[in-house]
Design brief:
alpha/beta, QueA-like, Thrombin, subunit H, 2 domains, 9-stranded mixed sheet, 6-stranded antiparallel barrel, 6 helices, about 20% helix
């Protein structure tokens, strides 16, 4: 029995063979496997993502995160001597001013200038932060995002070692608001055709934006879960989304969050107002077992790293024992794990009628 008053990081560990970590996205997008779990009983069935329609019903609502990943990894050289540098843009501080990770860091002192893309982009270090990150100002003739689209690479998670041939495969088909340092990966399974089919059958599609920070990959270092400090991320819940969700609730439909980022956005707003309402701001909500959900009824998510805040969130929603059992089944059944891996659908009750 899990002790909710003394949750440990190690409670969320599981054995994962390295060969189950998906290195490349599956084609077509929606041909990934789908583990369907009854939230009430923990019963598990196996399907494919392209059959998602059969598990939803008219009047349900899918909440998607339309954040778009910034190709934020750039390679360049020091202006003075041509020595190599790598930047990873983390968070925008002001117009063309960003907090960055850089390596080798010893080269990036205040006032040092760097050149990227053969001169299309230059940068100057403005500040060295306590954690070793830097603040840099960028200079370019075009819009910075346009230049990054041209010369930048996707900031793939460290467990993906294969080169991504098509940058769009680390974007959802509905992405439009640039600002994430990582993809909201539960949405990578959807095709435009599948979203159209869902809308035609009467499933509402509602958008939120949460710009995913690299903190999503930071390991939980404290052994006591409650001592972990979550990173903060910017979100927007628009008025039309609040209206769709509230109508769904009022008519008895189910609100299904696509991904932990959509879930965290909805639950952040619910915790703030006691209901779903239009809002924007920053959230550092940390969801782990014992949390009482107020906004969502279902969740689509991928299979997450051991001891991560993401598996803790899933455990809070599905129940700890059911979650760990589902992960063990996924390993035994050779599911594909993490960002380019397979998906899990958690819903109350059995199959939709």
């Amino acid at each position: 029995m899990l002790d909710l008053s003394n949750l440990k990081r190690s409670d969320f560990n599981y054995a994962l063979p390295e060969e189950l970590i998906a290195q490349t996205p599956i084609e077509p997008r929606n041909h990934s496997r789908l583990m369907v779990i009854d939230r009430d009983t923990g019963e598990i069935t196996h399907d494919r993502f392209y059959n998602l329609c059969s598990h939803l019903k008219k009047g349900d609502c899918l909440v998607i995160n339309d954040s778009r990943v910034l190709p934020a990894r750039i390679y360049g050289e020091r202006e003075s001597n041509g020595s190599f540098i790598e930047f990873l843009l983390l968070e925008q501080r002001a117009q063309n001013v960003w907090e960055i990770l850089c390596r080798p860091g010893k080269k990036a002192k205040v006032g040092t200038r760097f050149v990227f893309g053969g001169g299309k982009l230059t940068a100057e270090i403005l500040e060295v932060l306590e954690d070793g990150n830097r603040v840099a100002r960028f200079f370019c003739d075009e819009n910075l995002f346009t230049v990054l689209d041209e010369i930048g690479q996707m900031p793939l998670p460290p467990y993906i070692t294969e080169k991504l041939e098509n940058k769009e495969r680390y974007q959802t088909v509905y992405s439009r608001e640039t600002g994430s340092a990582a993809a909201p990966t539960a949405g990578l399974h959807f095709t435009e055709e599948q979203l159209s089919d869902l809308a035609e059958m009467g499933v509402n599609i509602a958008r939120v934006t949460l710009h995913v920070g690299l903190g999503t990959f930071r390991p939980v270092k404290e052994e006591l879960v409650t001592e972990h400090k979550m990173h903060s991320e910017f979100y927007v819940l628009p008025p039309e989304t609040a209206e769709i969700i509230n109508k769904t609730k009022a008519s008895g439909g189910r609100v299904v969050a696509v991904g932990t980022t959509s879930c965290r956005t909805l639950e952040s707003v619910y915790q703030k107002f006691g209901k779903i309402a239009p809002d924007s701001g920053s959230t550092d909500i940390f969801i782990y077992p014992g949390y009482r959900f107020g906004a969502i009824d279902g969740l689509i998510t991928n299979f997450h790293l051991p001891e991560s805040t993401l598996i803790m969130l899933v455990s809070a929603f599905l129940g700890y024992e059911n979650t760990m059992r589902a992960y063990n089944v996924a390993v035994a059944e050779r599911y594909r794990f993490f960002s380019f891996g397979d998906a899990m659908l958690i819903l109350p009750g059995a199959r939709a009628e």
